[in-house]
Amino acid sequence: MTETQYRLFLKQLRNAYENSAFYRQKFTDCGLLPEDIKSPEDIKKIPFTDKTDLRKAYPLGLMAVPEERIVRIHSTSGTTGDPVIIPYTAQDVADWCEMFKRCYEIAGVTAADRVQITPGFGLWTAGIGFQTGCEALGAMAVPMGPGNTEKQLKMMVDMKTTVLGSTSSYALLLAEQVQERGLLESLALKKGIIGSERWSDKMRKRIREGLDIELFDIYGLTEIYGPGISIDCGQHSGLHYFDDFLYFEIIDPETGENVPDGAYGEIAITTLRKEGAPLLRYRTHDMSRLLPGKCACGRTYPRHDRILGRTDDVVKVKGVNIHPSQIDILLKGVEGVSSEYMVSLTKEGSKDKMILRFEAEEGADLRGLEQLVGHAFKQRIGIRINVEAVPLGALPRSEKKTKRIHDLRYQ
């Protein structure tokens, strides 16, 4: 932690204690006062904040300024309970816009570019984040929103779009449609800025080759502004995050202790300047690591690695914990297997049943691949499963995020 970050951290700590009823109660419950933090080492005394805490503050319990200063709200989906509503002041919006503008600049986007924005607008942060950052840069925004692939492709061709903003799932769908329709020569695309979900190397390769573009991984979450808090540069050796706005920690998800730089763990973020809904040590559940040293690009913003997965993505099957990233890595090592897969978990009596369906590349031996993948799964992960190879394009595609694991055991 730099001296400037520590000063901002202490200021935010005092702000949260004095102006956020949510944090005042949290500090009271654990007997903590701002003056108890006397050095960066004392930060670990501050309790973590989790999404479960934020849901209890629904609808506007996180607000830390008078309502007259709130100019906008955004929200999580609320698929597992009350949504989390994040209020923003005008300064919060401006700060987020500045960070997203930096993301575009780091990716080499200029005012001469035309950016087609396919993530959703409304309560979700993605679409409007892509748009306001684009406009701040001076590039031309083409705010399509999700879906309507026919129109997306028409606008991409007619508007000579040079930059695509998208989830990886929708970027793959577009890449497949471009190839199927023979549109590649009609496109002016140069770059793709892709976020909102973890994506495998095989998926990156298919998108990159299908659209003939350079891909940049962007990161963010609604609770912490939205997308645009970090991005990888042309070196593609980690994502630069903006330490003048955010303090990143990597913690052991089991113990909550900080791990050494370079070790994987869970990202916890403190917003150093946020006014509307400041967050201290917010557990994102996203798994990554901090990358020591300076990037070869010359920028001084620190870096974290690509998102490995989420701590809450782990499922237990036949007594074994399985993470989607393990399946990604396994399939990556089998020649002839494509990027797309889907897992179904059911019960047969009292026993777990797992079916792994994956797409095979054109001309591949489906039965042979099933044997290879089944054997590799048993060797590396330790359990026998049912394996089904299907032709390329047989699994469903998503215009938003792809759900890889469908756990039907307890329905």
Automatic annotation (TrEMBL):
One MF term in the entry's GO annotations: phenylacetate-CoA ligase activity
Domain AMP-dependent synthetase/ligase stretches: 65-269
InterPro entries, alphabetized: Adenylate-forming_Reductase, AMP-bd_C_sf, AMP-dep_Lig_C, AMP-dep_synth/lig_dom, ANL_N_sf, PA_CoA_ligase
Pathway membership, UniProt: Aromatic compound metabolism; phenylacetate degradation
Residues of the AMP-dependent ligase C-terminal domain: 319-409
Key words of the record: Ligase, Nucleotide-binding, Phosphopantetheine, Phosphoprotein
Top-tier EC class: ligase
Gene Ontology BP annotations: phenylacetate catabolic process
Source species, domain of life: Bacteria
Matching Pfam families: AMP-binding (PF00501), AMP-binding_C_2 (PF14535)
N-terminal signal peptide: none
Keyword Phosphoprotein: yes
Key word Transcription regulation present: no
Enzyme Commission designation: 6.2.1.30
Family, similarity comment: Belongs to the phenylacetyl-CoA ligase family.
Subunit structure and binding partners: Monomer.
Name of protein: Phenylacetate-coenzyme A ligase
Origin species: Christensenella minuta
Lineage of the species this protein comes from: Bacteria, Bacillati, Bacillota, Clostridia, Christensenellales
